[in-house]
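Backbones bend. To wit:
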Amino acid sequence: MNINKIKSHFPIFDNLVDGKRLVYLDSANSSQKPKIVIDKLTTFYEKEFSNVGRSVHSLAVNATNKFEQTRDMVKKYINASSREEIIFTKGATEAINLVATTYGQKFIEKGDEIIITELEHHSNYVPWHFLRETKGAVIKFANCNENGEVNIDEIKKLISNKTKMIAVTHLSNVTGAILPIKEIVDVAKEKKIPVLVDGCQSAPHLEIDMQEMGCDFYAISCHKMYGPTGLGILYAKKKWLENLPPYQGGGGMINEVKKDKVTFAEIPNKYEAGTLQTAQVVAFADSIKFLTEIGIKNIIDHEKQIMEYSLEQLRKNNSIKVIGNPKNRGAVISFTIKGIHPHDIATILDDDGVAIRAGHHCCQILHEKIGVAATARASLGVYNTKEDIDVLVKSIENCKKIFDI
């Protein structure tokens, strides 16, 4: 791949940070946006804007067509079996809350068990915690090992006749571990247990195929896929969407409203209440186009090379401790530097134009497990190069000099 050419699609890299070239290593938090996505948002608002699914004037028809074309593109990109299995949400967090709320309302009773892992982002724990508080559900945590990964056996041993849901991350946003989703789904199917996958970190970096994985639910965060903020996608098997209750009530999700009863629209509209993120959905089509033209396999190969180079360079420094060493790893590297708080690391690196994240990364349970309150995290995108990592390493040395380490 011509990375310089790819990088030229991102206007933000034309800017300097305090006179220095921007080295953006925070894509696990949110990716930067290519110009085609930015331009689509502007063009839509300037020339094409209308609400969707309501009016019959030409602007509304055009907007609705573009909106639904994006649904078709998502369906193809993730290899869903039906376009009706694609639900647009405000984000992956809302996608997971939608499942936890509707599934919990219909199927969870006191004492029923939900299995998650110690790697989970708060977005794939707190919604299930609500069911623990309101319905008396029991949450079981599959342990992660010293490499920062979760083996299939850890999940198997938690399954009982009370297990009603398995909800796991696809790719850890702290250790980078890629979980064996297909194996987990196969085990769950034997027990007729649905599986929800948090795909926030995996969707931009891995080949995701709903038919191959076989999971029941998959949550996607579009702003991590070089797309607009405020938009997420829930993939859900048709059988669930047809049987679960609506998540929210309002315009667009109804069929008929009477004083004594309300009937609901067919899927996917049943789960898309109110005015949706029309511009964001329309622009996300260009995010998919951008990823498709590069090719996900090319992205995987490129990011693997940069990740391996990053680990090699960071591990040369005895003061740096890389968190986790999973056998199957995505483009996320969390680390600590002895004697320096991660927030101080991030602040000093920012002076050199290097953007990383510091904190618990919405994974306090995992950080408690590994015995640190916070870590620094460098995460890769399609635009990163070995030169970016060289700047990171040099900036870390500056950081150590400031703290006399």
